[in-house]
Amino acid sequence: MQNKVVSKNLLNSTKNSLILAKNGCDIMKKKRNILMKELLMIKDKIEEIQQELLDFFSKAYSDLRDANISLGLFTKELASVVEEEVDLNLTYRSIMGIEIPVFQRLEYKKPQKLPFGLHASNSLVDKTYLSFMKVKVAIVKYAELETSIFLISKTIIKIKKKINALENLAIPKLEEDIRDMTTALEEKEREEFTRMKIIKEKKIL
């Protein structure tokens, strides 16, 4: 403040900057709280999906083992005719300005027709195929939730840094500047009052 010419306009401008800084800090805190609630909700969901995924994987590999015992290496040949799913429709939803990817909503449905003929397989292979279909659906849901957690957590960290910068640096500095300017202006007014008083007394004499 020593290098600045103190004026009422500068003081008012600094006061306005302080108001904006405090309002911005409050808005960011509200945004952080909303994102924290969203994060906790997603974490609850992902814990359910994690357990579901483990159960599906365990069941699928158990079924695969039984199929291998039944058909041996021919199971691998049957697996080669199953088409790989390389594309997923992707959209986005906005959470407090964060674009969260939403993968195609897959739901497990028993297919009308299996990719291999009935003459080439048996019920154990069919059972394995259906089990891995459930795994695929669970993986997509898990990936969506993991991505959401990553993006929201990253944004929360950025917001916390901004809040800390405002609360610990910007706002205290503005408050200090306002105190210094107020003191300087009050001193200036006292000096001006004293000067005017002396001039008036001289005129009287």
From TrEMBL:
One of its GO terms (molecular function) is proton-transporting ATPase activity, rotational mechanism. Pfam families: ATP-synt_D (PF01813). Keywords: Ion transport, Transport. The keyword Translocase does not apply. The keyword Ion transport applies. It comes from the Bacteria. Gene3D superfamilies: 1.10.287.3240. NCBIfam families: V_ATPase_subD. Belongs to the V-ATPase D subunit family. This is V-type ATP synthase subunit D. It comes from Candidatus Improbicoccus pseudotrichonymphae. The lineage of its organism: Bacteria, Bacillati, Bacillota, Clostridia, Candidatus Improbicoccus.
